Amino acid sequence: MKASCSPAPNAIGNRIWHDINQNDIQDPEEPGIDGIKILLLDAENGNSIVGEVFSLNGVEYYFTNANVAGGIIFEHDYIISVNENQTKLSNINFISFSSANSGSSDLIDSDTLPFGSNAIINFKSGLPS
Fold it and tell me: I want to staple 119 with a disulfide (CB 3.0 to 4.6 A). Which of 29, 47, 87, 112 is the partner?
């Protein structure tokens, strides 16, 4: 028997949160931030913008085949980028983006790296982060 079905849909996303105590860890009491503009860049094609979303509905954001130009390509290099000069960030007394890979659990820390006035995450789609 041979299964003939479409591959599972890809989605890229997660949560933007306010690291109130600046410990670079997403603590249970730290709120998410709605209204943050997040860009998806195609790292294999000159870092061109292929998607743009805003964090909402519980401060989550997702890029899917429906909102990414050409759809999400499996095993493709992308960059998530957030600019620090957004009004929503200045409204919460934003100081700086959290440092990447702090603490002992990758499930609750930040994965961002500083790049000018942006926080970025480099990754390959379809692989666990």
Answer: 112
> Mind listing the pLDDT tens digit for each residue in 87-104?
777 666 665 566 665 666
Cβ atoms of residues 109 and 25 within 8 Å: yes
Q: How far apart are CA 48 and CA 105, in angstroms?
A: 31
- The DSSP element (H or E) to which 120 belongs, if any, is strand 118-124
pTM of the model: 0.80
**E strands along 3-115, which residues?**
11-15, 37-42, 48-54, 60-64, 77-83, 113-115
Tell me the C-alpha distance between 110 and 32, whole Å: 13
Q: Which residues contact 123 (CB under 8 A, 6 or more apart)?
A: 77, 78, 79, 80, 129
